[in-house]
Amino acid sequence: MDAIDHQIISCLVADARASYAEIGNTVGLSAPAVKRRVDKLLDSGVLRGFTAVVDPEALGWGTEAFVEVHFGGNVTPAEIRSSLEPLAEVVAAYTVSGAADAIVHLRAASIHHLETALERLRAVDMVDRTVSTVVLSTLLERPPAPGGEG
Amino acid sequence: MDAIDHQIISCLVADARASYAEIGNTVGLSAPAVKRRVDKLLDSGVLRGFTAVVDPEALGWGTEAFVEVHFGGNVTPAEIRSSLEPLAEVVAAYTVSGAADAIVHLRAASIHHLETALERLRAVDMVDRTVSTVVLSTLLERPPAPGGEG
DNA sequence: GATGAAACTAGGTTGTG
DNA sequence: CACAACCTAGTTTCATC
């Protein structure tokens, strides 16, 4: 994990289908050298994989919301995870500090779809209360800048 | 944008470096046919591109927070966007309904780094008040399921 | 208009120094 | 890590339905 690895990761984040030769040209390495590093990064788990970036609107997932979920009683993160995993509308979920126990990021096709997703979320065992915040517009969405401070 | 396009998108979301032949094998098409469809999806904007999925911990970005931002006065989404864009720790930002004006997703290297990022966020013009929620653990993070209801 | 097969080109992969 | 050879995949063209 040296500076060149960070550059390679940057290239792949920018375009996961970039050729090794192209990346090598950017970072000053030969194509095979880049491949070996990428293989190592995949093997070590630094790179988890490669995915396509899709326009949610085009797929008919134009409605988003963040939901603070309050659980009743003692619930483990693992239990929360397994209870949320079956809900297709849940694109992300986090346990958090503060008043709520978890924040759930929902993506739905419409307000109506969002409502039914919320109903199913509230029907999940141990869910006590939810506070929904509907997304009006996405201002910014980007991968974390590689090699920040710290 | 028929059912096969959705299948192709699913394949690419699962693995952006999958070969056209492999995708074709899954969706029941030949490699050239898949390529033509992918080109069209890229051209039409349904597919925005391809990116690498990186482990934030491994890159030293292990601390996350969601911040509700309250703005003073009349601020346009475009103004919010351009004021947040320079902050490297901002990985996502949304205008939202409800009490807050925006939700900002921050990723930092440490609690200390998060603190400095919050200071810079609060120093942004027109930012009135912020309410931070620190992420304890990531339960789930996944792309939206293609072809939902709606 | 879109697909499938084949030919050609480019990139991925492995071995050697 | 670079170089070189080999092999696989991407790309284009053309014929077909």
From TrEMBL, chains A, B:
Pfam families attached to this UniProt entry: AsnC_trans_reg, HTH_AsnC-type
**What are the top taxonomic ranks of the organism?**
Bacteria, Bacillati, Actinomycetota, Actinomycetes, Pseudonocardiales
Q: Which residues are listed as membrane-spanning?
A: none
Q: One GO cellular component term, please give it.
A: cytosol
The residue ranges of the HTH asnC-type domain are 1-62
The UniProt GO MF terms for this protein read:
sequence-specific DNA binding
Q: Name the keywords, alphabetized.
A: DNA-binding, Transcription, Transcription regulation
> InterPro entries from the entry?
AsnC-type_HTH_dom (IPR000485), Dimeric_a/b-barrel (IPR011008), Tscrpt_reg_AsnC-like (IPR019888), Tscrpt_reg_AsnC/Lrp_C (IPR019887), Tscrpt_reg_HTH_AsnC-type_CS (IPR019885), WH-like_DNA-bd_sf (IPR036388), WH_DNA-bd_sf (IPR036390)
**Superkingdom, according to UniProt?**
Bacteria
According to UniProt, the name of this protein is AsnC family transcriptional regulator
A GO biological-process term: response to amino acid
